[in-house]
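Researcher: Sequence recovery benchmark, item below. Answer with residues only.
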């Protein structure tokens, strides 16, 4: 079992290893206040009025807040990462392995996206070396940082989060000179119109995997109250702050490519924005990816591979993805995540808070500081609910896809479990257990 040396990747985080709320809040802000958020906000501003973009951001943020707090508070109590927690919150060993694999693959994609932004910005600003060389340097550099775990990630966030926020505000101030705020608030969008549904899905989808992987942070927190304030401040300040700044910049520059303008316009300030953004965000991408892969390997084999080795493997693969240009698929990637990832949280929340199928095992083992000795091999109802909900989010044309898939998963899972329990005459449905 992986303990403190592996950042408790396959174990509960004990109470004496928990940290103050503000330490995880800074890390959370670092995941939200980033260049990708500016790109997202600029896309909203290019296709929407300021107030429509504000509404889309608020709706998307509410979805993220609900998901983050619900799953984060549970993981804080249990001290478990997302993928490991899912083993006793609906999905069983095989299901948790699948979730771990999905998280690992998806976050390698995000790692590649962010590393592409990093390398492209540094190459353009410095004029030294080419993009591919910078992508290798920056990707492997972040990998080295993540090898040292959450403590190093927190320390780095304490430095680079304030630097990024200050740099963005200063750069935006200079770019907005000559434009009145009243003008920018009322000006029509400069590009093709974007629907509220699409925009909200992009906002929710843009960080939905961060919301679902909230347990990777909150397992180190001391109480549900700390989780509430961390998720609330992080989600609304990070989303609203960065998005609305980018919306104003898109209206002022009449383009959605405001990040490139900011980089070229700001000189050393632009370099600071790129560096600070990528370092503080990409370390969490790689960190959660390594936890997901750790759970996957633990569930499907008897191999005991350290998180350090897994971090190196994922970091190298993610770096190579950035070299081949994954950034070109940025918007499509957001939309896909917006409907594929939420069902996982919907099912876990229903299983933990409503059905409470493994609460007794979790409570008893938590008192001993251990993991439950038994778990389902697989919960077929959870897997089916996940698949159906994802299809609903993808193909139902009415409403907000991210919210549709989230709610559909929870409802389908709850109804199906209750129906199966009545049919099989089980008060509390549990499938075949495997140690």
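Model:
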């Amino acid at each position: 079992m992986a303990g403190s040396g592996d950042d408790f990747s396959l174990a509960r985080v004990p109470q004496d290893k928990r940290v103050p709320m503000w330490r995880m809040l800074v890390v959370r802000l670092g995941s939200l206040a980033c260049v990708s958020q500016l790109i997202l906000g600029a896309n909203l501003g290019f296709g929407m009025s300021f107030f429509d973009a504000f509404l889309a951001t608020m709706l998307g943020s509410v979805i993220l807040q609900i998901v983050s707090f619900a799953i984060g508070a549970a993981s804080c109590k249990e001290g478990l990462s997302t993928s490991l927690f899912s083993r006793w919150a609906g999905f069983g060993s095989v299901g948790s392995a699948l979730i771990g694999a999905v998280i690992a693959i998806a976050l390698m994609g995000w790692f590649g996206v962010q590393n592409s932004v990093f390398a492209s910005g540094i190459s353009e600003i410095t004029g030294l070396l080419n993009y591919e060389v910078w992508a290798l340097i920056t990707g492997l550099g972040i990998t080295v940082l993540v090898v040292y775990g959450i403590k190093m990630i927190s320390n780095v966030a304490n430095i680079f989060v304030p630097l990024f926020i200050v740099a963005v505000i200063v750069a935006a101030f200079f770019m907005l000179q000559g434009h009145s705020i009243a003008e920018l608030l009322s000006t029509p969008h400069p590009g093709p119109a974007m629907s509220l549904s699409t925009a909200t899905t992009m906002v929710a989808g843009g960080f939905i995997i961060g919301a679902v992987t909230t347990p990777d942070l909150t397992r180190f927190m001391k109480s549900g109250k700390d989780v509430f304030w961390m998720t609330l401040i992080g989600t609304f300040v990070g989303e609203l702050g960065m998005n609305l700044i980018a919306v104003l910049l898109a209206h002022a520059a009449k383009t959605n490519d405001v990040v490139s303008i900011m980089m070229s316009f700001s000189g050393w300030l632009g370099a600071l924005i790129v560096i600070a953004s990528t370092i503080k965000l990409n370390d969490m991408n790689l960190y959660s990816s390594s936890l997901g892969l750790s759970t996957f390997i633990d569930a499907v084999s008897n191999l005991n591979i350290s998180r350090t080795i897994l971090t190196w493997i994922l970091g190298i693969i993610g770096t190579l993805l950035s070299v081949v240009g994954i950034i070109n698929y940025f918007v499509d990637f957001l939309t896909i995540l917006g409907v594929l990832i939420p069902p996982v949280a919907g099912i876990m929340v229903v299983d933990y808070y409503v059905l409470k199928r493994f609460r007794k095992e979790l409570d008893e083992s938590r008192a001993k500081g251990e993991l439950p000795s038994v778990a389902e091999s697989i919960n077929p109802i959870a897997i089916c609910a996940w698949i159906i909900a994802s299809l609903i989010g993808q193909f139902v044309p009415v409403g907000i896809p991210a919210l549709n898939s989230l709610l559909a998963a929870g409802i389908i899972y709850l109804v199906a479990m209750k129906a199966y329990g009545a049919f099989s005459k089980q008060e509390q449905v549990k499938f075949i257990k495997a140690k």
